[in-house]
Fold this protein.
Amino acid sequence: MTLSTFAFIFTGVLLNACAQLLLKAGTNAVGAITLDRATLFTTALRVLTQWPVLAGLTLYVVSVGVWIVGLSRVDVSIAYPMLSLGYVVNALAAWYLFGEMIGPMRVAGMLLILAGVFLVARS
């Protein structure tokens, strides 16, 4: 994989991870969402008017465009496992931004993900 191809793939992963974090920030502002017929429309409206949710959805669209460019340059069997890096990025960012806990099992899981991505990238 060339450096430019890796840059497209990794940028797509980072944009996707940022989109997730923005969606989480938007839902934090709304609170726990309960789905019932009486409040479904108003709840959807409250969620969709949060700027972080709108920014997150926008980043998803951009990430898909960048991802398509990356996929056009590398086998999907190499590109798709790279999405796993998003789990590591999100876990670390959620710890930093939202105070989410990262215990030993999560650290072990992230190390396994990084090792797996490394092996796939080297193949």
User: Anything to note?
Assistant: Helices lie at 3-30, 40-48, 51-71, 76-82, 85-98, 104-122. The longest helix spans residues 3-30. The mean pLDDT is 93. The chain has one domain: 3-122.
